[in-house]
Amino acid sequence: MNFRVVQIGLWVIVALAGAYVFFLREDAPDVPTAQSFQVGDPYVALTGSDGSPINTADFASEHQLLYFGFTYCPDVCPIGVRKMVTAQALYQLSGAQAPLKVVFTSFDTARDTVDILAQYETNIEESVASDFTEEEQAKLQLKLTTLTGTESEMDKALSQYPVFVNQITDPDQPDGYTYTHTDIIYWIQPGGTVKILSARHSAQDIADMLAAAA
Fold first, then answer.
1. Least confident of 16-30, 46-60, 102-116
2. Given pLDDT bands bounded at 50, 70 and 90, which one contains residue 32?
3. Average pLDDT, stretch 16-20?
4. By the 8 A CB rule, do 127 and 81 touch?
5. Could you tell me the end-to-end alpha-carbon distance of the chain, in angstroms, rounded to an integer?
6. Residues 111, 151: contact at Cβ < 8 Å?
7. N or C end: fewer C-beta atoms under 10 angstroms in the chain?
8. Handedness of CA 105, 214, 207, 140 (dihedral sign)
9. For 19, phi and psi rounded to 5 degrees?
10. Number of helices (H), then strands (E), in the chain
């Protein structure tokens, strides 16, 4: 697949730089604030792991955590996705009742087929569940929603967010390529307000913010 560097304008660079400077300041609070970010349309219309169309606008009344990545990613993606699902578990264990969707969107449209994504969902859900006691597991209903689509559909979805994606040649990887990409969790609140969650936010931080906003 002849992939591309997805739109990243000066406004994105300035905004992200400002967010990261805040997160890295020595006098920043122990729990960093989730930074609001202006997104024209926060909802994406793609394909789920069962092959059916999914429009995240259908979940507009719910809190959503959204991450863009790919299943062959060796490091940042599994960390980010596990963090989201762990936050979902902690949120549920807190007794919060408001629905929460956790969404992983794969821009690797060639390799990440619906079958691969379905297995990825299962692997992540089971891995996170294993971090909790049997009593806690009985209270959990973990659900990772994975999405992909055609190149044109993915281009549209990526263009809606400040996402940087670049395909690079790597002969050691399947099909000879991998990606460098933005590592950000987007928190989409009911009504469409988007906040950026940084690497400094733990799963507990995210669960606490979600519970406070629910």
1. 16-30
2. low
3. 43
4. no
5. 41
6. no
7. N
8. negative
9. -65, -45
10. 6, 10
- Distance of alpha carbon 85 from alpha carbon 119, whole angstroms: 15
Give the Cβ contact number of residue 68 at 10 Å. 27
Residue 118: what are its φ and ψ, rounded to 5°?
-60, -40
How many residues can be counted in the chain? 214
Which contiguous run of DSSP H or E holds residue 123? helix 114-129
Question: Where does the pLDDT of residue 127 fall: very low under 50, low under 70, confident under 90, or very high at 90 and above?
Answer: very high
Hunting for tokens 């806690």 — which residue is that?
A: 136
Q: Report the C-alpha gap between 71 and 192 in whole angstroms.
A: 27
Q: At what angle do helices 76-93 and 114-129 cross, to 10 degrees?
A: 50
Give the integer Cα–Cα distance in Å for 205 and 9: 30
Structure tokens at 97: 């009742």
* Per-residue pLDDT, 30: 58
**One-letter identity of residue 12:** V
CB atoms within 10 A of CB 144: 24
Q: Which tokens hold the place of 190?
A: 């009911």
Distance CA 188, CA 190 (A): 7
CA pair distance 99, 60, nearest whole angstrom? 11
